[in-house]
Amino acid sequence: MKKRSNSALTMKDKAALENRLRSSASWFYWIAVLAAIQGTAIAFQLGDVSFIGLGVTLVIDPAVRTFLTGLGAQSPLSLSLLSLTCTLVFCGFFVLCGFLGGRRHLWAFMTGICLYTLDALVCILIKDYISLIFHAGALVALLPGPGIIKQLHQMNQAELLV
């Protein structure tokens, strides 16, 4: 009888950990969506929403515009679309990290956290401190993910031994 209650407790703990993992991994989706909004607003000059997105977008857009203008590109639309495409590549990467991280792929979670931390460093370099505050909050929500994945893997191993 005691073994059954431990098993029930383990299943309850496992479900709670799964929920915490999904919650943590979902922050990668928020990062991607907000960065896409930011990238769109910057590319099409819809207003300043730099505080909600990636610091790298604030570097990509002027770099792409300078590069293409140097090559003789004149079309503002082509400059905007290439800049937005570069930003969307980063967004796609964060979506992938959220998807795979939520399915217990530790490497994806860790890679996403490392990339987002590097983006926070970009925010420091360009002195975008409001965005840095958002980055810090998101990182606080992301950081438990790898530990949760490890706990879930340990629980699975323990179940296999029983």
List keywords for this structure.
6 helices; mainly alpha; single chain; 84% helix; 162 residues
Structural features, described:
- The protein is an all-alpha fold and 162 residues long.
- It has one domain (26-161).
- The mean pLDDT is 87.
- The radius of gyration is 20 Å and the shape is elongated.
- 84% of the residues lie in helices and 0% in strands.
- Helix 1 (2-43) packs antiparallel against helix 6 and helix 2 (55-70) packs antiparallel against helix 3 (76-101).
Mean pLDDT over the residues = 87
Q: What shape does the CA trace take?
A: elongated
**Amount of beta strand:** under 5%
When the domains are counted, the total is 1
Distance between the termini: 15 Å
Describe the sheet with the most strands. none
Low-confidence spans: none
Quick take:
The protein is mostly helical and 162 residues long. It has 6 helices and no strands.
Q: Helices and strands in order, then pairings?
A:
Layout: H1 2-43, H2 55-70, H3 76-101, H4 106-125, H5 129-142, H6 144-161
